[in-house]
Specification:
- This protein is an all-alpha fold and about 120 residues long.
- It has one domain.
- The protein is about 80% helix and about 0% strand.
- The chain contains 8 helices and no strands.
- The protein has helices at about 1-10, 15-30, 30-40, 45-50, 60-70, 70-85, 90-105, 105-119.
- Helix 4 (about 45-50) runs parallel beside helix 6.
- It is globular, with a radius of gyration of 15 Å.
């Protein structure tokens, strides 16, 4: 039911449901970010931004940036970090991968999102 009717049942836009699923999926892989979010050190706005770029290798550095940057400036700070630390091919590979993974991991991400809201 949730997979097809979730947005209607929850009274949210489909794009919002997709974003929640994306973040939930990423949080499964990013223990430091998950912990910072759970402890209230990162807002949901910052978590959404960080999870767009974070990997196990760069998570600590991106969390440092997020914790010292205002939410309104975080996108700019992360874009600057990406320009300094990633080549164009890496940035381009990230986007199609995210779209494919979203479709293939919906059930797992729903479980993660449910677990986060239950805590």
């Amino acid at each position: 039911m949730l997979r097809n009717d979730g947005p209607r049942v929850l009274d949210i836009e489909v794009s919002t449901a997709r974003e929640w699923l994306r973040v939930g999926r990423e949080l499964l892989q990013l223990a430091k970010t998950r912990s910072a979010f759970r402890e209230g050190r990162l807002s949901d706005t910052k978590v959404r931004s960080v999870t767009r770029l974070a990997t196990a290798e760069n998570e600590g550095e991106l969390l440092d940036i997020a914790e010292r940057t205002a939410p309104s400036q975080l996108g700019t700070a992360l874009a600057a970090w990406s320009a300094r630390n990633e080549d164009e091919a890496s940035r381009n590979r990230r986007h199609p991968r995210d779209r494919w993974q979203m479709r293939s991991q919906v059930p797992q991400a729903l479980s993660a999102a449910s677990a986060m809201t239950a805590s």
